[in-house]
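Good day; I would like, with your permission, to put a structural problem before you. I would ask you to consider whether the tokens describe a fold that such a sequence might reasonably adopt. The full record is reproduced below for your convenience:
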Amino acid sequence: MKSERLLSLDVLRGITIVGMILVNNPGTWESIYAPLRHAEWNGLTPTDLVFPFFMFIMGVSMSFALSRFDHHFSRSFVTKLLRRTVILFLLGVFLSWFSLVCFGVEHPLEHIRILGVLQRLALAYCFGSLLIMSVRRPVNLAWISGILLIGYYVLLMLGNGFDLSEQNVIAVTDRWIFGENHMYREWLPDGSRIFFDPEGLLSTLPCIAQVIIGYFCGNILREKTEIQHRLLQISILGIILLFAGLLFSYGCPLNKKVWSPTFVLVTCGFASLFLVFLTWLIDIKKQQKWGYAFHVFGTNPLFIYVVAGVLATVLAVIPVGDTSLQGKIYQSIVAVFRDAYLASLIYGLLFIGFNYLIVLVLYKKRIFIKI
């Protein structure tokens, strides 16, 4: 069942990476359907599920990958951990630098955004792996995850953590460590901007717990019991996480931009149940053809995420008349469909289609780029 389970995981990973690329690449940011927007602050939209799903999947995958080391710090483990952490982090920094250079920002090194999506994945992977390898008893790992979430909630409560302002402890921490020039500027509802990073350093703490929860689900998948029994266990865990997160959200709002503890619980709950559904559909019912494209995306997920980021920047800076190549393509779609929202979505889907051709070539040649 190992390879079959990994097929399910690849499909889920592919669905998630497609979602990440889609929500990052509309035809225009002015015309986006509501489900494809992030919540402005508190709340949850389908778009808010995409990144935490990938974080959860990374934890599931770590269960398979780290099992080979049997909780022993070997030279090969440390080398792999450091190499992957550094590569992921630097790729994230590169995307920021590349965008600044392409848009003609002077002295780009002085304005590089230090943190971001790939950087958060790198840090969560690194510290999650270290905890998993250091703590042998699963119950102790569960306690550590709980302490992380509770401790982070206390920090949020004491440090204006649920206020969208520069006095938020997350913004204060990033400003103190990195400086404003290296921070993201978040949009406010009135159209103004403040220095607040939705992938802040402090808000990466609960992501470690997210990875560990995914690791627990991966451990369940690796058990040698009947597949139905394993899926039942993950379903029960997912339901508990989902209802606990929704219940506690009355005192701790669901909030992606601070990655609140309830956001961790709810998104892990949804991800667990979605993993169960896909495993049932693919492994038990053998309905696999529909997921082929997602499986292809899921075999080179981080590589195509980086490629998509570079491609999106290039399309946005190549001049075509009085607009960019991206703008020209979008205007052509609008001219046909006469609906800005639909045209924006179609552009995103065409962009995904182009990226699919890239990963399809790699897949056909059995080239899997590990990042």
The chain has 13 helices and four strands. The first strand starts at residue 185 and ends at 187. Residues 1-5 have pLDDT under 50 and may be disordered.
